[in-house]
Each structure stands twice: as structure tokens, then as C-alpha cells.
Design goal:
mainly alpha, 63% helix, 145 residues
Length: 145
């Protein structure tokens, strides 16, 4: 995000020449982005409050945990005890290595297979399923079949 801001409005030193220090500008930019993120999350919950499904929360949580776990096994690791900068991890392989490519390909195959199983179990080609799902009925489509 910082690179995008630099490209759009210039380097932080250009903004802070006479008025503010670079640290002050960086802090203001970080706070602005945090507030923007919180606003967008709140807006998403307001929009989805009637149609937000439990499976969306589950799928987002699995994706988030999987991403953190994926970073944890690389040589770079993750800052597990942030703000302490020491990175923890299993340090099995480097990001972008052939090992990561193979693991990514296997996960892609597993995802395609799971989507196929999900499609078969819930008969997602059935138009009535989508009418019920999109109508906002308080029905848990993932677990009550």
C-alpha cells in the first residue's frame, strides 16, 4: 500500500520537506489506512447483516489461517509476537522456490476437488437452491443438508 501511495502522491520526504517530519507523515498515513480499513469492514457488515452467511465466515477464517500457516513454514517466517520483530517459523523452504510451487499446485488440485464434491452434495446447479440462498432466508445452507 505504501508503494501505491508513493506512486500516486510522491515520496514521503517530498511531502514533509517544510511542514512535517517523515515519521509524522508515515504515522498519519498508517492511521488513515487503519481507519479506512475499519470503516470498510463496518460498511461490509452493515451491507451483509441480513445476508451474511456462516459459511462465509468459515471460508474466510480457513483462508486466513491457511495463509498465516503458509508464511510460517517459509524461511522468512512470521512476526508471531509482534511488535517484537523476530520472525518465527519452521524455515522449511524459501518463498518462491520450486517446493512452494509444488505445494501451491497440490493445494489448487485439492481445492478443485473439494469444489466438485461441494457442488455434488448441495446440487448447486439447482435453481431453487440459489433462490433460497439469495432471498435472505435465515437458513444455514452449509450444515443443514
Amino acid at each position: 500500500m505504501g508503494e501505491l501511495i508513493k506512486r500516486r502522491i510522491g515520496h514521503l520526504n517530498d511531502l514533509s520537506n517544510d511542514f512535517f517530519s517523515t515519521k509524522q507523515v508515515k504515522l498519519a498515513a498508517q492511521w488513515f489506512l487503519w481507519i479506512l480499513d475499519l470503516f470498510l469492514i463496518a460498511l461490509a457488515f452493515l451491507i451483509w447483516k441480513e445476508r451474511f452467511r456462516q459459511e462465509i465466515i468459515i471460508l474466510l477464517s480457513i483462508g486466513y489461517a491457511g495463509h498465516i500457516l503458509g508464511d510460517f513454514v517459509t524461511k522468512d517466517g512470521i512476526p508471531l509476537f509482534w511488535p517484537i520483530k523476530k520472525r518465527q517459523g519452521l524455515k522449511l523452504f524459501r518463498t518462491g522456490s520450486w517446493v512452494e510451487s509444488i505445494i501451491g499446485f497440490l493445494l489448487l488440485i485439492a481445492n478443485v476437488y473439494l469444489i466438485y464434491l461441494f457442488w455434488q452434495k448441495f446440487d448447486l446447479s439447482n435453481l431453487q437452491y440459489w433462490k433460497n440462498y439469495l432471498s435472505g432466508h435465515k437458513h444455514d445452507f452449509l450444515f443443514n443438508y
